[in-house]
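Possible regression after last week's pipeline update?

I re-ran a chain I had predicted before the update to compare outputs. Posting the input and the new output here so someone can diff against the archived version. Not blocking, just want to make sure nothing changed silently.
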Amino acid sequence: MEEGRTEPSGLYIHVPFCLRKCDYCGFYSIAGADSDAAMRFAQALQRELRFLLPPGLQIASIFAGGGTPILMEPPFWKSVLEMISDRAVLLQDAEITIEANPAAASRDDLSELRSIGFNRISLGVQSFNDSNLAFLGRVHSAEQGMEAVEDARRAGFENISLDLIYGVPGQSLQEWVKDLREAVEFGVPHVSCYALTLEEGTPYATAVKEQGRPAPEESALGDFYLSAIEELGQSGYEHYEVSNFAFGPRWRCRHNMGYWTGRPYLGFGPSAHSFDGSRRRWWNTRDLAEYEVLLEASQPPAGGDEELDDRQILLERAMLGLRTSDGFDLQAILPRGFHPSLVRKLLGTWEAEGLARIDGLRIRPTNRGMFVADGLAANLSRAVDLDRRAASAED
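New output (post-update):
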């Protein structure tokens, strides 16, 4: 197995507040936040950074997500970025991203966020169609989404990413293609395309199950996915991850690339996750009040942790690697001396079926392969298990 990772880390900050909780969203968030709630969270986050951000840590990327992190005012973010820079080592070319809801992204705030150090913005446009936005429960209109893109550009953001959602019940393929073409016309260097899914425990999933609310049509998702690849590909975007498209390597989301390639990252804020780049993963409590109480008592806001075994590491690295066009080197995560005879046969089948390109044990999925990455990873894990059993039987 590969040794522990020592490269610079990513840093994620989770803001749990949003304007309105979307029915389909499975992330931890709370609708609405008055000034007192925002102040308590700000104090808790600053305590967490002081307690748990290792001095001298090299940081390659910062990602402010949520929730709606732009609801926290620019002076808050200025103090957070200054605290990180004072305590850790922020690489000169670090990517610093903030997510924004078009309904909350004022032109003045965007300009101020750009001036204090954010150099990338991810806009949750989701659609340029008001009917689809209404179904999703978004609080912004299509026009506001368009204005947010222009305002971000005027504020000085060159690195702009748009989030789009497909598979909304009632959404036609033509409407989806129109959304894609709108994004292309704006000339943003990065587009993320996500399928609407039923997240267990969300109001949307419950309404589908108990009240007969329309669900995404699973049979149509493949057509939406392939149309995104075709439309964006024709416009010069590379499909570098199952849901993500960029104008070449320069515009890939470096922070998320860290997740997909197994680099270490630290998470701050309620529900945020961390990973040491090797085996250990831990996460914060998914309760804002508990998060604040623990930090006020100078205790880590721990929610849980786990130590990954060899099989878990292989499965996770395979699932994540198969989501990216770069793929991954299977040899790097196999036990030393392992003889992958059944694995090689499986890889040959993938190549013959057009699911992956194989070079030794370097696996690069095709577009079709990325779409079924989780299933491929599960099959690969089973093949590794069978090879292990066969080797044990021979011994």
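Follow-up from reviewer: compared with the archived run. DSSP finds 14 helices and 17 strands in the chain. Marking as no regression found.
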